[in-house]
Input
Amino acid sequence: MDVKRAIVIVLDSVGIGELPDAAAFGDVGSNTLGNIARVTGGLNLPNMEKMGLANIAALQGLAPQLKPAAAYGKLAEVSAGKDTTTGHWELMGIHLLQPFPTYPNGFPAEVMDAFEAAIGRGWLANYPASGTVIIDELGEEHMRTGKVIVYTSADSVFQIAAHEEIIPVPELYEICRAARKILRGPHEVSRVIARPFVGQPGHFERTANRHDFSVSPPEPTLLDSIKEAGLMVYAVGKIEDIFNGQGITDAVHTQHNMDGVDKTIAAMRQRPERGLIFTNLVDFDAKFGHRNNPTGYANALEEFDRRLPEITAALQPDDLLVITADHGNDPTYPGTDHTREYVPVLLTGASVRAGVNFGVRPTFADLAATLADALGVAPPPQGTSFKNLILE
Output
């Protein structure tokens, strides 16, 4: 049978073990879920456990199920990267053969000189850093001088931090747009990110007014196929930013994971039309993976798991719910970078063959091909459908 709506929830960075090419990314031994389970004394995720999460890989605290409530398996990443944009784009059916540029030594003078000229003010830093650490270190100088704080990470990002009382959020967004125009060609980073903060020295806090200025996918994705078929593509969280609005019919941004769950459930109840509801829950990555906090990560997973019965209760008979991830970010692993891992997939709905193990799929794009097949729209550029394995 065809599916009326697909609801895809991406648990940002919830990887499930190193990929065969992990050595090329410096990630041998990474296992986000496995290592969190190990160092915290075991995961407590009864709802995902019933769905078959521990049937995908051994996870301390969770038992494999004789009769899992969901179809289950995992996806391997093909694209040349392990960042959010690359992962989401591959989940929606395209492969990136060239990685986005990264700047472990900061951005070159040609970029920074053009940036300073464009915005009419100076800058601080220009090196890789933790966003919370760098505002503690340079926030006071920023407030005194009005210079923006520019930093990057192991990801392909140009991040601009500013105090909301020194540079109002709309002005910070304009500064980011100026940077986005400069960062083209060989310096076309995946995302320019506005990182506003508030507070006083020693007590700075980042706000929810973050905004990502991304590049558009280089070719049409599943989102474009769904939109062109006249169906809904409703983006929740940072999905709209990741795809630069391409292929999206409507979007809502979120404050945190539970706000993302609330808005997903609201969409499931209020948007009955055919199509896709596509959600990213970023806190796992931003608040716990990058900050090497396995306990906080485990707590966030438990918080999501407790909401799963509400999500499944909002499913209509011809809905398909997909729970997956976009890369790893093992909080027990050295450094604060993403990790090159498989991602888990749990699929449920009235028409899903519960307990089916669809195995290890060779690309994230197989999910896009399966959803295109289930929704009856044009297939994406990459991926092979496994719809016939999972749907009655």
